[in-house]
Amino acid sequence: MDGSFSRRNLLKAGLGAAALGAVSIPQKSFGAPKFKWRMQTHWPTGVGYYKPLYEGFCVLVKQATAGQVEITPLPSGAIVPTKDVFEAVGRGLFEIAWSFPAYHIGKVPVAGHFNGMPFGWENFEETFVYLDQMGGREIIQKAYAEQGLYSLPGQPVSGVTVYSKKPVKNIEDFKGLKIRSTGVVAEVFKKAGATPVFFPGEELYQALQTGVCDAAHWGSVSAGWDMRFQEVTKFIIRPYFGNITNCEIFVNLNTWNKLPADLKAIIEQAAYTNAVNSIAWFLHHDYLRMKEFEEKKMGQISWMSEETIKTLRKYSLEVVDEYSKKDPKYCAPAGNLLKDLLKRAGRI
Protein backbone atom coordinates (compact mmCIF):
# COMPACT_ATOMS: atom_id res chain seq x y z
CA MET A 1 0.00 0.00 0.00
CA ASP A 2 1.48 3.31 -1.06
CA GLY A 3 2.20 5.51 1.94
CA SER A 4 1.30 8.69 0.05
CA PHE A 5 -2.44 8.03 0.35
CA SER A 6 -3.99 10.98 2.16
CA ARG A 7 -7.15 13.01 2.51
CA ARG A 8 -5.87 15.41 -0.17
CA ASN A 9 -4.88 12.60 -2.56
CA LEU A 10 -8.22 10.90 -2.05
CA LEU A 11 -9.95 14.10 -3.06
CA LYS A 12 -7.73 14.48 -6.12
CA ALA A 13 -8.14 10.87 -7.23
CA GLY A 14 -11.88 10.75 -6.64
CA LEU A 15 -11.67 6.97 -7.05
CA GLY A 16 -15.16 5.63 -7.52
CA ALA A 17 -16.88 8.91 -6.66
CA ALA A 18 -18.00 10.03 -10.09
CA ALA A 19 -18.61 6.57 -11.49
CA LEU A 20 -20.29 5.15 -8.42
CA GLY A 21 -22.16 8.16 -7.16
CA ALA A 22 -20.17 8.43 -3.93
CA VAL A 23 -20.22 11.57 -1.87
CA SER A 24 -17.54 14.22 -2.09
CA ILE A 25 -15.16 14.73 0.79
CA PRO A 26 -14.91 18.11 2.47
CA GLN A 27 -11.70 19.46 3.96
CA LYS A 28 -11.70 20.05 7.68
CA SER A 29 -9.52 21.41 10.41
CA PHE A 30 -7.58 19.02 12.58
CA GLY A 31 -7.60 18.59 16.35
CA ALA A 32 -10.98 16.84 16.55
CA PRO A 33 -11.43 13.75 18.75
CA LYS A 34 -9.91 10.49 17.52
CA PHE A 35 -11.95 7.33 17.06
CA LYS A 36 -10.43 3.90 17.64
CA TRP A 37 -12.35 0.89 16.36
CA ARG A 38 -11.79 -2.86 16.41
CA MET A 39 -12.66 -4.86 13.32
CA GLN A 40 -13.10 -8.63 12.86
CA THR A 41 -13.31 -10.61 9.63
CA HIS A 42 -14.31 -14.11 8.53
CA TRP A 43 -11.16 -14.48 6.41
CA PRO A 44 -8.27 -16.69 7.59
CA THR A 45 -5.04 -14.75 8.08
CA GLY A 46 -3.07 -16.94 5.65
CA VAL A 47 -5.03 -16.05 2.51
CA GLY A 48 -3.38 -13.76 -0.03
CA TYR A 49 -6.13 -11.14 -0.01
CA TYR A 50 -6.14 -10.64 3.77
CA LYS A 51 -3.42 -8.01 3.87
CA PRO A 52 -4.06 -5.96 0.69
CA LEU A 53 -7.85 -5.79 1.05
CA TYR A 54 -8.87 -6.32 4.67
CA GLU A 55 -5.89 -4.68 6.34
CA GLY A 56 -5.64 -2.37 3.33
CA PHE A 57 -9.07 -0.88 4.07
CA CYS A 58 -7.94 0.00 7.59
CA VAL A 59 -4.84 1.69 6.17
CA LEU A 60 -6.96 3.69 3.70
CA VAL A 61 -9.22 4.95 6.47
CA LYS A 62 -6.35 5.94 8.76
CA GLN A 63 -4.47 7.77 6.03
CA ALA A 64 -7.52 9.50 4.55
CA THR A 65 -8.66 10.74 7.97
CA ALA A 66 -5.12 11.77 8.97
CA GLY A 67 -5.31 9.33 11.86
CA GLN A 68 -8.64 10.56 13.25
CA VAL A 69 -10.22 7.15 12.65
CA GLU A 70 -7.98 4.20 13.43
CA ILE A 71 -9.28 0.68 12.83
CA THR A 72 -7.44 -2.32 14.27
CA PRO A 73 -7.99 -5.34 11.99
CA LEU A 74 -8.44 -8.59 13.89
CA PRO A 75 -8.57 -12.14 12.44
CA SER A 76 -11.57 -14.45 12.39
CA GLY A 77 -12.66 -15.59 15.84
CA ALA A 78 -10.57 -12.96 17.66
CA ILE A 79 -13.51 -11.61 19.65
CA VAL A 80 -16.49 -13.82 18.78
CA PRO A 81 -17.06 -16.79 16.43
CA THR A 82 -17.81 -15.76 12.84
CA LYS A 83 -21.44 -16.85 13.17
CA ASP A 84 -21.95 -14.30 15.96
CA VAL A 85 -20.27 -11.26 14.37
CA PHE A 86 -23.45 -9.72 12.92
CA GLU A 87 -25.23 -9.66 16.27
CA ALA A 88 -22.08 -8.71 18.21
CA VAL A 89 -21.49 -5.55 16.17
CA GLY A 90 -25.18 -4.68 16.36
CA ARG A 91 -25.01 -4.92 20.16
CA GLY A 92 -21.85 -2.79 20.25
CA LEU A 93 -19.50 -5.51 21.51
CA PHE A 94 -17.04 -4.13 18.96
CA GLU A 95 -17.35 -1.41 16.36
CA ILE A 96 -16.97 -2.77 12.83
CA ALA A 97 -16.71 -6.02 10.87
CA TRP A 98 -15.83 -7.37 7.44
CA SER A 99 -18.19 -10.24 6.71
CA PHE A 100 -20.15 -12.14 4.08
CA PRO A 101 -23.88 -11.41 3.75
CA ALA A 102 -24.83 -15.07 3.19
CA TYR A 103 -23.95 -15.79 6.82
CA HIS A 104 -26.94 -13.88 8.17
CA ILE A 105 -29.70 -14.09 5.56
CA GLY A 106 -31.66 -16.10 8.13
CA LYS A 107 -31.86 -12.95 10.24
CA VAL A 108 -31.93 -10.34 7.44
CA PRO A 109 -33.12 -12.06 4.23
CA VAL A 110 -32.35 -9.07 1.99
CA ALA A 111 -28.66 -9.64 2.74
CA GLY A 112 -28.91 -12.18 -0.08
CA HIS A 113 -29.48 -9.34 -2.52
CA PHE A 114 -26.43 -7.54 -1.14
CA ASN A 115 -24.43 -10.73 -1.55
CA GLY A 116 -25.50 -10.95 -5.18
CA MET A 117 -27.93 -13.43 -6.66
CA PRO A 118 -26.55 -16.25 -8.86
CA PHE A 119 -26.48 -15.15 -12.51
CA GLY A 120 -27.54 -11.66 -11.48
CA TRP A 121 -24.93 -8.90 -11.82
CA GLU A 122 -22.64 -9.51 -14.79
CA ASN A 123 -19.94 -7.03 -13.81
CA PHE A 124 -18.68 -4.49 -11.31
CA GLU A 125 -20.61 -1.66 -12.93
CA GLU A 126 -23.95 -3.45 -12.69
CA THR A 127 -23.34 -4.10 -9.01
CA PHE A 128 -23.16 -0.40 -8.27
CA VAL A 129 -25.89 0.52 -10.75
CA TYR A 130 -28.14 -1.75 -8.69
CA LEU A 131 -26.90 -0.59 -5.29
CA ASP A 132 -26.32 3.13 -5.82
CA GLN A 133 -28.22 4.27 -8.90
CA MET A 134 -31.36 2.11 -8.60
CA GLY A 135 -31.65 2.27 -4.81
CA GLY A 136 -30.71 -1.26 -3.75
CA ARG A 137 -28.36 -0.11 -1.02
CA GLU A 138 -31.03 2.18 0.46
CA ILE A 139 -33.35 -0.81 0.90
CA ILE A 140 -30.57 -2.91 2.45
CA GLN A 141 -29.54 -0.01 4.69
CA LYS A 142 -33.00 0.18 6.24
CA ALA A 143 -33.01 -3.54 7.02
CA TYR A 144 -29.56 -3.35 8.61
CA ALA A 145 -30.54 -0.32 10.68
CA GLU A 146 -33.19 -2.46 12.37
CA GLN A 147 -30.31 -4.66 13.57
CA GLY A 148 -28.33 -1.70 14.88
CA LEU A 149 -25.94 -1.59 11.92
CA TYR A 150 -24.80 0.78 9.20
CA SER A 151 -23.72 -0.89 5.96
CA LEU A 152 -20.80 0.59 4.00
CA PRO A 153 -20.44 0.22 0.20
CA GLY A 154 -20.06 -3.40 -0.93
CA GLN A 155 -16.68 -5.05 -1.37
CA PRO A 156 -17.11 -7.05 -4.58
CA VAL A 157 -15.03 -10.08 -5.44
CA SER A 158 -15.06 -11.93 -8.73
CA GLY A 159 -17.63 -14.63 -9.21
CA VAL A 160 -18.78 -17.56 -7.14
CA THR A 161 -16.52 -20.44 -8.20
CA VAL A 162 -17.14 -24.12 -7.55
CA TYR A 163 -14.18 -26.47 -7.19
CA SER A 164 -15.33 -30.03 -7.79
CA LYS A 165 -14.10 -33.60 -7.85
CA LYS A 166 -16.51 -34.23 -10.73
CA PRO A 167 -17.10 -32.33 -13.98
CA VAL A 168 -20.29 -30.28 -14.16
CA LYS A 169 -21.52 -29.46 -17.67
CA ASN A 170 -25.22 -30.22 -17.75
CA ILE A 171 -28.01 -29.79 -15.23
CA GLU A 172 -28.06 -33.57 -14.73
CA ASP A 173 -24.52 -33.39 -13.32
CA PHE A 174 -25.86 -31.61 -10.23
CA LYS A 175 -28.00 -34.58 -9.23
CA GLY A 176 -26.75 -35.88 -5.89
CA LEU A 177 -23.67 -33.62 -5.89
CA LYS A 178 -22.71 -32.92 -2.27
CA ILE A 179 -21.61 -29.32 -2.38
CA ARG A 180 -20.48 -27.04 0.41
CA SER A 181 -22.53 -23.91 -0.10
CA THR A 182 -24.16 -21.00 1.70
CA GLY A 183 -26.97 -18.51 1.25
CA VAL A 184 -29.09 -18.18 -1.87
CA VAL A 185 -26.49 -20.04 -3.94
CA ALA A 186 -27.18 -23.15 -1.87
CA GLU A 187 -30.90 -22.80 -2.58
CA VAL A 188 -30.26 -22.62 -6.32
CA PHE A 189 -28.06 -25.72 -6.14
CA LYS A 190 -30.80 -27.54 -4.28
CA LYS A 191 -33.31 -26.74 -7.03
CA ALA A 192 -30.80 -28.16 -9.52
CA GLY A 193 -30.75 -31.47 -7.61
CA ALA A 194 -27.55 -31.04 -5.63
CA THR A 195 -27.24 -31.65 -1.89
CA PRO A 196 -25.93 -28.49 -0.20
CA VAL A 197 -23.96 -29.02 3.00
CA PHE A 198 -22.12 -26.53 5.16
CA PHE A 199 -18.71 -26.58 6.80
CA PRO A 200 -16.82 -23.64 8.28
CA GLY A 201 -13.70 -22.59 6.41
CA GLU A 202 -11.29 -24.42 8.67
CA GLU A 203 -13.00 -27.77 7.94
CA LEU A 204 -13.41 -27.42 4.18
CA TYR A 205 -10.11 -28.83 2.99
CA GLN A 206 -10.53 -32.03 4.98
CA ALA A 207 -14.18 -32.38 3.90
CA LEU A 208 -13.10 -32.31 0.25
CA GLN A 209 -10.07 -34.49 0.85
CA THR A 210 -12.05 -37.23 2.59
CA GLY A 211 -15.05 -37.09 0.26
CA VAL A 212 -17.50 -35.80 2.84
CA CYS A 213 -18.41 -33.34 0.10
CA ASP A 214 -17.81 -33.50 -3.66
CA ALA A 215 -17.52 -29.79 -4.34
CA ALA A 216 -17.29 -26.43 -2.61
CA HIS A 217 -17.26 -22.71 -3.21
CA TRP A 218 -15.41 -20.11 -1.18
CA GLY A 219 -15.68 -16.94 -3.22
CA SER A 220 -13.71 -16.69 -6.44
CA VAL A 221 -11.13 -18.93 -8.11
CA SER A 222 -8.30 -17.24 -6.24
CA ALA A 223 -10.16 -17.29 -2.94
CA GLY A 224 -10.70 -21.05 -3.22
CA TRP A 225 -7.08 -21.44 -4.32
CA ASP A 226 -5.83 -19.83 -1.14
CA MET A 227 -7.94 -22.41 0.72
CA ARG A 228 -5.94 -25.07 -1.25
CA PHE A 229 -9.01 -26.51 -2.99
CA GLN A 230 -6.88 -27.18 -6.09
CA GLU A 231 -5.03 -29.85 -4.11
CA VAL A 232 -8.12 -31.96 -3.42
CA THR A 233 -10.32 -31.38 -6.50
CA LYS A 234 -9.94 -31.98 -10.24
CA PHE A 235 -12.25 -29.39 -11.80
CA ILE A 236 -12.96 -25.67 -11.68
CA ILE A 237 -16.52 -25.13 -12.90
CA ARG A 238 -17.09 -22.21 -15.27
CA PRO A 239 -18.68 -19.82 -15.91
CA TYR A 240 -18.99 -18.26 -12.47
CA PHE A 241 -22.27 -18.90 -10.67
CA GLY A 242 -22.54 -15.13 -10.46
CA ASN A 243 -19.88 -12.86 -11.95
CA ILE A 244 -19.85 -10.62 -8.90
CA THR A 245 -20.48 -11.36 -5.25
CA ASN A 246 -20.09 -8.95 -2.38
CA CYS A 247 -18.29 -9.11 0.89
CA GLU A 248 -19.46 -6.38 3.24
CA ILE A 249 -18.33 -3.95 5.92
CA PHE A 250 -20.82 -2.94 8.60
CA VAL A 251 -20.48 -0.59 11.56
CA ASN A 252 -22.41 -0.40 14.79
CA LEU A 253 -25.09 2.21 14.07
CA ASN A 254 -24.56 4.20 17.27
CA THR A 255 -20.81 4.23 16.63
CA TRP A 256 -21.41 5.45 13.07
CA ASN A 257 -23.80 8.18 14.19
CA LYS A 258 -21.18 9.60 16.56
CA LEU A 259 -18.89 10.47 13.65
CA PRO A 260 -18.96 13.97 12.19
CA ALA A 261 -20.34 14.21 8.66
CA ASP A 262 -16.96 14.74 6.98
CA LEU A 263 -15.44 11.60 8.52
CA LYS A 264 -18.47 9.59 7.46
CA ALA A 265 -17.97 10.84 3.91
CA ILE A 266 -14.27 9.95 3.93
CA ILE A 267 -14.91 6.43 5.21
CA GLU A 268 -17.62 5.90 2.59
CA GLN A 269 -15.17 7.00 -0.11
CA ALA A 270 -12.44 4.75 1.30
CA ALA A 271 -14.86 1.82 1.04
CA TYR A 272 -15.56 2.65 -2.62
CA THR A 273 -11.83 2.89 -3.29
CA ASN A 274 -11.25 -0.44 -1.57
CA ALA A 275 -14.05 -1.95 -3.68
CA VAL A 276 -12.07 -1.08 -6.81
CA ASN A 277 -8.95 -2.60 -5.26
CA SER A 278 -10.90 -5.71 -4.32
CA ILE A 279 -12.37 -6.58 -7.70
CA ALA A 280 -9.05 -5.86 -9.42
CA TRP A 281 -7.12 -8.09 -7.01
CA PHE A 282 -9.48 -11.02 -7.37
CA LEU A 283 -9.88 -10.86 -11.16
CA HIS A 284 -6.12 -10.61 -11.67
CA HIS A 285 -5.39 -13.58 -9.43
CA ASP A 286 -8.30 -15.60 -10.86
CA TYR A 287 -6.73 -15.40 -14.31
CA LEU A 288 -3.34 -16.41 -12.95
CA ARG A 289 -4.70 -19.37 -11.00
CA MET A 290 -6.83 -20.79 -13.81
CA LYS A 291 -3.82 -20.67 -16.13
CA GLU A 292 -1.71 -22.45 -13.53
CA PHE A 293 -4.46 -25.02 -12.92
CA GLU A 294 -4.42 -26.06 -16.58
CA GLU A 295 -0.76 -25.58 -17.52
CA LYS A 296 0.58 -27.50 -14.53
CA LYS A 297 -2.01 -30.21 -15.25
CA MET A 298 -3.45 -29.91 -11.76
CA GLY A 299 -6.94 -30.20 -13.22
CA GLN A 300 -9.37 -29.07 -15.88
CA ILE A 301 -11.82 -26.24 -16.46
CA SER A 302 -15.31 -27.70 -16.82
CA TRP A 303 -17.64 -25.39 -18.76
CA MET A 304 -21.38 -25.56 -18.20
CA SER A 305 -23.61 -25.51 -21.28
CA GLU A 306 -25.68 -22.48 -22.25
CA GLU A 307 -28.84 -24.45 -21.54
CA THR A 308 -27.58 -25.24 -18.03
CA ILE A 309 -26.89 -21.56 -17.39
CA LYS A 310 -30.39 -20.60 -18.52
CA THR A 311 -31.89 -23.22 -16.21
CA LEU A 312 -29.80 -22.05 -13.25
CA ARG A 313 -30.79 -18.41 -13.89
CA LYS A 314 -34.44 -19.53 -13.89
CA TYR A 315 -33.90 -21.24 -10.53
CA SER A 316 -32.18 -18.14 -9.20
CA LEU A 317 -35.14 -15.95 -10.10
CA GLU A 318 -37.44 -18.47 -8.43
CA VAL A 319 -35.40 -18.01 -5.25
CA VAL A 320 -35.71 -14.22 -5.67
CA ASP A 321 -39.50 -14.56 -5.83
CA GLU A 322 -39.58 -16.91 -2.83
CA TYR A 323 -37.62 -14.41 -0.77
CA SER A 324 -39.95 -11.63 -1.91
CA LYS A 325 -42.91 -13.58 -0.52
CA LYS A 326 -41.11 -14.27 2.77
CA ASP A 327 -40.01 -10.67 3.20
CA PRO A 328 -42.34 -8.24 1.38
CA LYS A 329 -40.89 -5.28 3.29
CA TYR A 330 -37.33 -5.52 1.96
CA CYS A 331 -36.78 -8.51 -0.33
CA ALA A 332 -39.76 -7.71 -2.54
CA PRO A 333 -38.56 -4.23 -3.59
CA ALA A 334 -34.96 -5.46 -3.81
CA GLY A 335 -36.04 -8.38 -6.01
CA ASN A 336 -38.07 -6.11 -8.26
CA LEU A 337 -35.03 -3.89 -8.76
CA LEU A 338 -32.92 -6.88 -9.75
CA LYS A 339 -35.47 -8.11 -12.28
CA ASP A 340 -35.75 -4.59 -13.67
CA LEU A 341 -31.98 -4.50 -14.14
CA LEU A 342 -31.92 -7.90 -15.85
CA LYS A 343 -34.72 -6.82 -18.19
CA ARG A 344 -32.87 -3.65 -19.10
CA ALA A 345 -29.76 -5.73 -19.79
CA GLY A 346 -31.76 -8.13 -22.00
CA ARG A 347 -31.09 -11.24 -19.93
CA ILE A 348 -34.68 -11.96 -19.03
Provide a concise account of the structure shown.
By secondary structure, the chain is α/β, with parallel strands linked by helices. It has helices at 7-13, 17-20, 50-64, 85-91, 111-115, 124-133, 136-145, 183-191, 201-210, 221-226, 253-257, 261-295, 306-326, 331-344; strands at residues 35-41, 69-74, 96-99, 149-151, 155-158, 162-164, 178-180, 195-197, 215-217, 235-238, 244-252, 300-303. Helix 3 (50-64) runs antiparallel to helix 12 (261-295), helix 8 (183-191) crosses helix 13 (306-326) and helix 13 runs antiparallel to helix 14 (331-344).
Care to describe what's here?
By secondary structure, the chain is an alpha/beta fold. It folds into two domains: 33-156 and 245-284, 3-Layer(aba) Sandwich (D-Maltodextrin-Binding Protein, domain 2); 162-242 and 298-326, Periplasmic binding protein-like II (D-Maltodextrin-Binding Protein, domain 2, 3-Layer(aba) Sandwich), CATH 3.40.190.10. 45% of the residues lie in helices and 15% in strands. The chain has helices spanning 7-13, 17-20, 50-64, 85-91, 111-115, 124-133, 136-145, 183-191, 201-210, 221-226, 253-257, 261-295, 306-326, 331-344, and strands at 35-41, 69-74, 96-99, 149-151, 155-158, 162-164, 178-180, 195-197, 215-217, 235-238, 244-252, 300-303. Strands 1, 2, 3, 4, 5 and 11 form a six-stranded mixed sheet that branches. It has a six-stranded mixed sheet with strand order 8-7-9-6-10-12, with helices on both faces. The longest helix is centred in the last third of the chain and has 35 residues, at 261-295. The relative contact order is 0.17. The model is unreliable at 1-29 (pLDDT under 50).
